[in-house]
Input
Amino acid sequence: MKYIPTFLIAVLSSLLCACTHQQTSEGGQGDTLQLNYAENLVMVDYQDFLEVTMKDPWNEGKTLHTYVLVAGEKVNSFLSQHPSLADATIISTPLQHAVSFNTAHAYLIGELGAMNQLKGVADLKYMLLPEVYQRVEDGRITDCGDSMMPDIEKLVALQADGILLSPFENSGGYGRLEEMGVPIIECADYMETSALGRAEWMKFYGRLFGKAHEADSLFAVVDSAYQGLRKAYGNNGSHGNNGSHGVRMLTEKLTGSTWYVPGGKSSVAQLIADAGGSYAWMKDEHSGSLALPFETILEKAGNADVWIFNDQSEQPMTYDRLRAEFHGYAMLKPFKERRVWYVNSLKVPYFEQVSFRPDWLLRDYIILLHPECGLGTPRYYQPLKE
Output
């Protein structure tokens, strides 16, 4: 079994849910909920159920999973009334005993006001969520162990009615989890190629928990804030730069002997552009990561103006520590000019928040690329010290 380990204001839902019509095989008419950014998710609202189709992000033209969300009191009689949907995964909503294997989804559940419906988590040690820890301590949430080898007995005992986990290509299935008969909700939001596309999946997650209005409202806030920042500071924005001549950003650092940089079609590359920055691999056609040797990094991005990366250590990162990790780092322009920033994800809720609050991450990027912008201090990143 393999898988990758409040809102501020309400807005008119009609702005988010403009609809087109779909027919079921039985002739029933449904309304397709408008998604403006998510490319791998389709949601069609019928009179007595919501059909959710996830496109397979690794196999064009194929479906990863089809879910049918049905109000709990209608589940028992549903398939007899809709036999054509027998191959779909039926989910009784709203979920009341959900389990999250991912810290970002656990955070979102809290933001939607559904924390009481979260009854179990896996990989607790990787979560920076004080409320989850408190609920584990007082018995309201069960620690189900490692996501790669979850405690099946605990999942059964807490009567899980939905397990949210993030799949990856050629996973080979979910082993004993599939034998439980509990709906496995494949959260493939991370495969979206834009940050707003990933965040828009919250509309699906909200409907799982009976929090459609809250999810739509939160996304409206995120979208509005993101677009406002992009229009002001992004490439060709009123305060931004032309992408080919903007402030150059380098991301990540060596993992062993390999430097993994985001492809040109990745959400990170788009974030850099939306922040008014330039990126050495912007013309690359990959949405995933590129595995490169340091020599290529030095050649293509050694003259970057700003360098950012994630660090996970108990001690603060310094220029001396960074040089001790790999002496070649000292050859990079941002190292020489002391324009290196990092986020310590052991201490800052970075992975918890940025998946569904890309507006917060975009603001950080803008501050790092344009220190004169007057937006204050970054939420996540801090500068290296000597």
Q: What stands out?
A: The longest helix spans residues 212-233. Residues 366 and 372 are 10 Å apart (CA to CA). DSSP finds 14 helices and 21 strands in the chain.
